[in-house]
UniProtKB/TrEMBL annotation, chain B:
Biological role: Component of the mitochondrial ribosome (mitoribosome), a dedicated translation machinery responsible for the synthesis of mitochondrial genome-encoded proteins, including at least some of the essential transmembrane subunits of the mitochondrial respiratory chain. The mitoribosomes are attached to the mitochondrial inner membrane and translation products are cotranslationally integrated into the membrane.
SUPFAM superfamilies tied to this protein: Ribosomal protein L13
Family matches, as InterPro entries: Ribosomal_uL13, Ribosomal_uL13_bac-type, Ribosomal_uL13_sf
PANTHER family to which the protein is assigned, alphabetical: LARGE RIBOSOMAL SUBUNIT PROTEIN UL13M, RIBOSOMAL PROTEIN L13
Superkingdom of source: Eukaryota
Record keyword Mitochondrion present: yes
GO CC annotation terms, alphabetical: mitochondrial large ribosomal subunit
Protein name as catalogued: Large ribosomal subunit protein uL13m
Family per similarity comment: Belongs to the universal ribosomal protein uL13 family.
Amino acid sequence: MTRIRRGYIARRRRTKIRLFASSFRGARSRLTRTIIQQKIRSLVSSHRDRDRKKIDFRRLWITRINAVIRGNRVSYSYSRLIHNLYKRQLLLNRKILAQIAILNRNCLYMISNEIRS
Amino acid sequence: MSQQLARTRLAYARTWHHLSFATDPRPLGRIASSIALHLMGKHKPIYDPSTDCGDYVIATSCADINTTGKKRYQKLYYTHSTRPGSLKSMSMDNMFKKWGGGEVLKKAVRGMLPKNRLRDKRLARLKVFEGEDHPYRKNVVKIDGKTVNNDKIGHSGETLDAVLQMKNELPPEKVGVAQAST
């Protein structure tokens, strides 16, 4: 059998992966074996965090709405607001309520006063 | 998109809140809880845990801190220097005598802040004084002689809405004005 070199097969595969990790810091964008591992880790992170993102933002909106609602009246809270929202079947979601809280706080107060029965 | 709304210097500017224990009858823990919320910035609609968006709090007359029950003489503060046998305790009354009410308040607030890298920075924004005098009078903003506190850290705090309503910037409805009852 004549000797056969592998040629450029492996190099082409590794270049693609290297391009993916081209903006990583330090050895993670320079060393081939490290690059392969870091690409796997980063894809796992992005897969997991796509679902975490939805959870995290909802938590942030709830905190922000709570902050503004508690500033208005002594014994009012986010939980009571949501209860009244559901009782009156108002379809505003937390994302929109949080944006209203930032941009137009009085509008949120008006809404909460209206639905407060 | 909610991360980019209201990214203005004015929104993130730190405001100074003033609180006097001489006029506030609430006990130590309840006030400390309210102070911790303000140091974290959780009273703001732009709150984000990754940024330190907290405010300054000036607490005066800390010698008059009110505690219920016999806590003043029975509550013990422990210190340990990691050397075996060096557990020391001090009652709250002795803490008042040795370090002052400011330290008692700071210990209370410190336990109520999230235990992360921002805790000491936030605690440093709490300025405590035993008497009524403090060097930050110019930092506390006043409109028409009323302190602009947009929240309830003071006992019967005038809200920003009440102040703005005085200046006819809000419609004269019940919108947003603090109701003393309920």
